[in-house]
Amino acid sequence: MKPGHGEVLIAEGDVEVADQEELLVQAFRRQLDLGMWAAVPERSASGRREARMVKAFEEIPRDADRVIFFPRAAGGA
Amino acid sequence: MLLAAITIGVVIVALLWDLVLPSIKESVERYKARRAIIPGSSHDPGRERRAEARARQLLRSCVNDEEWSMYRDLGFIRVWGALARAPRRGRIGDDPRAGAPYAYLVYPHKPIVAYLPQTSELLNEYCVEFPDETRPYGSARLPDSDDVLAKWMALTGDERRLLATANMHLPGRQVDPKQVRRDLWRLSQWERERLRGTPRSPGEVPAP
Questions:
Q1: Is A77 on the interface with B (CB under 8 A)?
Q2: Inter-residue contact A77 to B158 (CB < 8 Å)
Q3: ipTM for the whole complex
Q4: Cβ distance of A72 and B130 shorter than 8 Å
Q5: Cβ of B136: how many Cβ atoms within 10 Å?
Q6: CB distance B203–A73 less than 8 Å?
Q7: Could you tell me the pTM of the whole model?
Q8: Residue B161 in 3-state DSSP?
Q9: Which of A42, A69, B36, B146 could form a disulfide with A31 if both were Cys (CB 3.0 to 4.6 A apart)?
């Protein structure tokens, strides 16, 4: 998510392919270094959709189809 | 005699020069300003609208069908609280509402409002923003639907962390309680209509 722009594709690839996985890891770390939060939309056991917040690439489910980065929350006025 | 005349002439010219010079300078500046090339603004009026359209698509792809319809029809999303105890209103001692189901109303670019659905009692406002300090596109504000999605992800993904980050206030600081109660009434009407109309789809799950 980018202000004034909306959704932007940062990187895509297959985690089963080593080179592509490495690129995804680098892109993931770059976003976290920029101060972004990362979330994986998923469906819970009860069928409800929810998000899983992830802080490391290893926390992302292998079958996840996307990770959404958004600016870190801050207390508002 | 001649010398005196020349001296008087020089003095007159000097005095006139002092009088005329500022207006000449002003005229030159005005001429330059008229001829100056003003750089065109790169603002694209459609960009915000396109960003919002993309954000709505992303929101729709992430939330439940019911939540998407709620946002489309009412302009906010209700998210059920998942903590064991509802947020407290700063009351001292045992709170009889402990353990009661609670929920949040998530509005775009407004505080999150926590409330008790059974009684429609408003609990707190949580002021939270998602500012992008890098301002890559000239604005630090996410599109409306992205702001709602960010709150939804943070609430469903790590409710405790979001509440710890937000500034908590009593209801009514920024969001008019009358407006919230009206929204809760609209929500109840909307749910009644929905229950009456269509069978529940697989993405919809009843409230806890």
A1: yes
A2: no
A3: 0.91
A4: yes
A5: 12
A6: no
A7: 0.76
A8: helix
A9: A69
